[in-house]
Design goal:
Order of helices and strands: EEHEEEHEEHEEEH
CATH topology of the largest domain: Gyrase A, domain 2
Helix content: 10-25%
Number of strands: 10
Strand content: 35-45%
Number of domains: 2
Strand order of the largest sheet: 1-7-10-9-8
Structural class: alpha+beta
Number of helices: 4
CATH architecture of the largest domain: 2-Layer Sandwich
Length: 162
């Protein structure tokens, strides 16, 4: 059995997802939050929450509640629940990099794309945001209307790789 045989692609748990946008003092928000927010193209886990840099001055946060985020944002930003706006697919296995290269326009095989890295790209003509969780796991966020097609694309690709 090759490493690629161990690839899986599943729709991940529908955790609450919040968009934190900061237009004021980021340092003050981080102080109230009790942690630094990830730098551009980076992600981190803190107390069971996943903090993902999304775009300039904006982070996506998987957390059980947005209450703490709203307090942290205060007058320096805003928190919006976006749980219904994305589906998270989890790809696991040593061959996830090869899988993402099929139908993709992003160099997922670069060793620099390591745990804690984030990238937005297009795969199989679909918008995807990638968050590398660990050496064998990547989460892919896509709009709900595209999730089933992306999953089918990856399942067909895994069959060809296997």
């Amino acid at each position: 059995m090759t490493d690629r045989h161990r690839l899986t692609c599943e729709v991940a748990a529908a955790d609450a997802l919040f968009r934190l946008e900061i237009w004021g003092d980021q340092a003050a928000v981080e102080q109230r939050l009790g942690t630094a927010l990830p730098a551009p193209c980076r992600s981190a886990t803190r107390d069971g929450e996943r903090l993902i840099w999304w775009e300039p001055s904006t982070w996506l946060i998987r957390a059980p509640s947005g209450a703490v985020l709203e307090i942290a944002a205060s007058d320096d930003g805003a928190v919006t629940e976006v749980s219904g706006g994305f589906r998270r697919l989890r790809v696991q296995g040593a061959g996830w990099r090869s899988l993402l290269m099929i139908g993709g326009v992003f160099d997922a095989e670069s060793p620099a794309f390591a745990p804690g890295c984030v990238a937005a790209t297009v795969i199989h003509h679909l918008p995807v945001w990638l968050d590398v969780i660990d050496p064998e796991t990547v989460d892919a966020y896509t709009p709900p209307s595209y999730a089933a097609e992306l999953k089918r694309h990856w399942e067909r690709a895994m069959a060809r790789l296997g």
